[in-house]
C-alpha cells in the first residue's frame, strides 16, 4: 500500500475529518467528568486521532490546556513551539541513536504551537490527549503578522505554519 492509499485508508477507517488547524482528526474520547476552569466547565480529558501529511501543516495555534502527543506510525513529526526563548522543536516518532526523537511529548497549556511532517511524501498518525479537555472556545488560531511582530527571529517557521 503506497502513502496515498494508506492515508485514504486511515481517514476512512478512523473516521477522520478535516481539522481547522490542518490535517485530519477524530475525537475518540471525552470524559463524562466535568471540572471548573477559568474558562468555565470543561471535560476532565479528551483524546483524538490526528493525521498530518507532508503536503499540509498544523498551523500555529494555542489552547488553554496541556496536550500530550503520542506517535503511532508514519514519518517523524516536529512539534514547533513559540516561546519567550523563541522557536523550540519537539521531535515525535520512534527513537533512534543520535536523535532526540521520543514517542511522547507534552505541549504545555497556553503555548503557541503547530506541527509538520519531517519526510516528504509521507504522513504521521498520532494521538493527542488534552487535560482539561479540549473545547473549541479555548482554541486560538494565529495569523502571520501577529506572530512575526512578537517573534521576528522565527520568520521562516512562522511563514510555513500560518
UniProtKB/TrEMBL annotation:
What residue stretch is flagged as signal peptide?
none
Pinpoint the DUF985 domain residues.
10-142
| Xref: InterPro entries | Cupin_DUF985, RmlC-like_jellyroll, RmlC_Cupin_sf, YML079W-like
Source organism, top-level taxon: Bacteria
Q: What is this protein called?
A: DUF985 domain-containing protein
Write the lineage as a comma-separated list.
Answer: Bacteria, Pseudomonadati, Bacteroidota, Cytophagia, Cytophagales
Amino acid at each position: 500500500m503506497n502513502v496515498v492509499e494508506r492515508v485514504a485508508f486511515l481517514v476512512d477507517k478512523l473516521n477522520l475529518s478535516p481539522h481547522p488547524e490542518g490535517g485530519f482528526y477524530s475525537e475518540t474520547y471525552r470524559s463524562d467528568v466535568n471540572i471548573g476552569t477559568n474558562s468555565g466547565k470543561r471535560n476532565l480529558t479528551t483524546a483524538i486521532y490526528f493525521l498530518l501529511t507532508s503536503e499540509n501543516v498544523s498551523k500555529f495555534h494555542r489552547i488553554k490546556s496541556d496536550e500530550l502527543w503520542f506517535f503511532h506510525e508514519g514519518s517523524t513529526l516536529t512539534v514547533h513551539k513559540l516561546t519567550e526563548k523563541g522557536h523550540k522543536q519537539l521531535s515525535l516518532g520512534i527513537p533512534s541513536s543520535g536523535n532526540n526523537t521520543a514517542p511522547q511529548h507534552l505541549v504545555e497549556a497556553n503555548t503557541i504551537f503547530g506541527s509538520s511532517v519531517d519526510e516528504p511524501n509521507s504522513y504521521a498518525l498520532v494521538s493527542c490527549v488534552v487535560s482539561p479537555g479540549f473545547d473549541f472556545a479555548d482554541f486560538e488560531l494565529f495569523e502571520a503578522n501577529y506572530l512575526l511582530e512578537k517573534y521576528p527571529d522565527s520568520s521562516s517557521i512562522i511563514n510555513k505554519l500560518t
